[in-house]
Amino acid sequence: MELISRILAHFALDIAAVCVLTFAVYYPRHRRRDLIPGYLALNVSLFALAAALGRSGDKGGIALAFGLIGVLSIVGLRSESMQTEEVAYYFTTLVLGLISGLPNVSLGLTAILCALPLAVVYAAGHPRLLARTQRALVTLDAAVTDPAAIDSFVKEHLGEPLSWKIQEVDYGRHLTVVDVRYRQARTGGVSRARKILRIVRPPRLKRNVRPARTPAADGRTTLFSDRP
Questions:
Q1: What is the mean pLDDT of residues 167-172?
Q2: How many domains does the chain have?
Q3: Shared-domain flag, residues 56 and 77
Q4: Per-residue confidence at 25, pLDDT binned at 50, 70, 90?
Q5: How confident is the model at residue 115 (pLDDT cuts 50, 70, 90)?
Q6: What mean pLDDT do residues 21-46 have?
């Protein structure tokens, strides 16, 4: 009974930690609901695996190490839907499940070890951290390889170029794909966004304008009558 109560306490701590990671940190920043079930399932599965291997005697550490290597190899699979910054949450989910699933570690130490990656992910991925530094994949409608021309284009349309790399040059279709890291301007982006809003936003209707009325033949007034 003592072992079961210890495992349940670790499981409650693990669920609380992974819920903070997914629902309080990840989802408010990225708004991707499709990855949340995968994060939760991976975390609980690794917790069960670590809890089982932790009770396998002296060979439990070796088995746990091989299991960790096997799970980490999953990240190497092709996943076009997962962005680079989301891999950090993937690893954190994995680590939380492994740490919480070790029954021989005290509950207090487990809580501290779970709080460390949560704090790092929260601080490193905060929207205010290096908020002006952005990345964009730019497609130019010309085959351009001149660094000065690319710098001028980035300064005019995006901001101050920090670094860029040409991904593709197509002389047949006259296209150039450039991976750009740039620092967003403080006022240029806002003014440009306001100009776009002025163009896209439909004109407002005047409140005090009433539709035209035409007198009918019987003396009554009708709206937009189509009679000759």
A1: 87
A2: 2
A3: yes
A4: very high
A5: very high
A6: 88
Residues 47 and 113 in one domain: yes
Determine the structural domain holding residue 104 and report its residue range: 2-124
Residue 58: per-residue pLDDT: 52
* Confidence (pTM): 0.62
Cα distances from 44 to residues 24, 106, 129, 167, 196, in angstroms, run 18, 19, 31, 40, 46
211 pLDDT more than 80: no
Rounded Cα–Cα distance for residues 147 and 163 (Å): 11
Task: Say if residue 46's pLDDT is above 60.
Answer: yes
| Alpha-carbon span 220 to 228, nearest angstrom | 16
Q: Which amino acid is at 178?
A: V
Whole-angstrom Cα distance, residue 131 to residue 126? 9
Q: Is the same domain home to 154 and 89? A: no
Residue 99 in any domain: the answer is yes
109 plus 154 within the same structural domain: no
Q: Is residue 220 part of a domain?
A: no
100 located within any domain = yes
Q: What is the mean pLDDT of residues 143-171?
A: 85
Q: How far apart are CA 164 and CA 157, in angstroms?
A: 14
**Do 142 and 173 belong to one domain?**
yes
Residues 145 and 120 occupy one common structural domain = no
